[in-house]
Amino acid sequence: MIGNFPVERFRNIPTPFYFYDTELLQQTLEEINCQSQDEQFHVHYALKACSNPLVLDIIQKAGIGADCVSGGEIKAALEAHIPANKIVYAGIGKTDEEIHFALDADIFCFNVESLPELEIINEIARSKNKIANIAIRVNPHVDAHTHHYITTGLEENKFGIDHTLLSDALNIAIQMNNINIIGLHFHIGSQITDMSAFQDLCVRINDLQDEIEAQGLHLQHINVGGGLGINYEHPNHFPIADFEGYFKVFRKNLKLRPHQQLHFELGRSIVGPCGSLITKVLYIKKGINKQFAIVDAGMNNLIRPALYGAYHRIENLTSEKPYQLYDIVGPICESADTFIKDYKIHEAQRGDLLAIRSTGAYGEVMASNYNLRNTLKAYTSEFINQLTE
Ligand SMILES: *Cc1c(COP(=O)(O)O)cnc(C)c1O
């Protein structure tokens, strides 16, 4: 066993596969529950980060709600026994079928991203004789200082309603008979490690709340979305995100009104560190100026490096020889199928097992069948520890 990896047991399992360290997940959930004990705080898990049923089961047992972005995710949350009254539903392109499904399930709240969407929810709710609880997603113009692909809170993008148009939107929503406005929703981006971005968000929300109250409106809840980042560089030293600092920012800076509830939607920070993609070295190819470690996992299993240029720490679990530099690449017929270039790992040979770390979030869920490579498997540490060696 190296670190938390049961390497000997890995040898009996066909690669590649995702490995979820359930002990770390439990510890993470305990830390979240410990740091968010305030009566008004409600944490939802953003299923889009990882919707593996084994992972959802553990999260559900910690009493955490769900943040969904499709009917399929609502279904997965319900199947994992997350209560409907803890489910929020966002997304700019909700289909009629999804809206019907969410209303039938009596979810807690729709996070609404545009006025045309609001009209359709109102219409469908009327047809079912129901009232839809909604929060309006506001684009607060807060710079999350993160990758431009995953920043969402800046000017003119497809998410949410511009904060300068909020009061008009609220006036329209109030007129709708089958809509009950219960909150405001924000989400400024992902992999945010600079807490000042969340401070900026608090300041913006405080201003907006003052404006809304001047309009005579009082809202039951504020939802600040997700986005807390994790340490991709040092997963062994910092396996749990800074939940203490994160919740403290809101406790300190956000002026909640009496009885107002505060909702969070965390994805990456809950599951990211607990996942690793385990892959086998197929060939070491020596080039002119470099050498390539060709592995059996590809961009179809983990697309983040190809899509965002994302960094994942990679470790050779089965070698202690001196370090060497490699381009670590997958088998897919695309040059983008490269996990990392000029990267130091213990000297590798055919058959070695590598762990691509911190891939619990936006890993397995984004996997595809490209090149018709084998369907990807995923195992929990609990499961693997039960296997006989
Ligand atoms: C993706 C998303 C989240 C989760 O983001 P993380 O960065 O994984 O915490 C939360 N809320 C909404 C609306 C999202 O789209």
Provide a descriptive summary of the structure in words.
There is one protein chain. This protein has 2 domains: about 5-15 and about 275-385, Lyase, Ornithine Decarboxylase, Chain A, domain 1 (Beta Barrel), CATH 2.40.37; about 20-270, TIM Barrel (Alpha-Beta Barrel). The strands form 2 sheets. Strands 1, 11, 12, 13, 14, 15, 16 and 17 form an 8-stranded mixed sheet that branches. About 30% of the residues lie in helices and about 25% in strands. It is an alpha/beta fold and about 400 residues long. The chain starts with 6 loop residues before the first helix and ends with a helix. The longest helix is centred in the middle third of the chain and has 19 residues, at about 195-215. The protein binds pyridoxal-5'-phosphate.
Overall mean pLDDT: 95
CATH class of the largest domain: Alpha Beta
Q: Would you tell me which CATH topology of the largest domain applies?
A: TIM Barrel
Class by SSE composition? alpha/beta
Short description:
With 389 residues, the chain is an alpha/beta fold.
Could you list some keywords that capture this structure?
alpha/beta, eight-stranded mixed sheet, eight-stranded parallel barrel, 17 strands, 389 residues, binds pyridoxal-5'-phosphate, Lyase, Ornithine Decarboxylase, Chain A, domain 1, 12 helices, TIM Barrel
List the helices and strands and how they pair.
Blueprint: H1 7-10, E1 17-20, H2 22-35, E2 41-46, H3 53-61, E3 65-68, H4 71-79, E4 87-89, H5 96-105, E5 109-112, H6 115-127, E6 132-139, E7 161-162, H7 166-175, E8 179-185, H8 196-214, E9 221-223, H9 243-253, E10 261-266, H10 268-271, E11 275-286, E12 291-295, H11 304-308, E13 314-316, E14 323-329, E15 338-346, E16 353-356, E17 377-380, H12 381-386
Parallel strand pairs: 1-17, 2-3, 2-10, 3-4, 4-5, 5-6, 6-7, 6-8, 8-9, 9-10, 12-14
Antiparallel strand pairs: 1-11, 11-12, 11-16, 13-16, 14-15
Helix pairs in contact: 5-6, 8-9
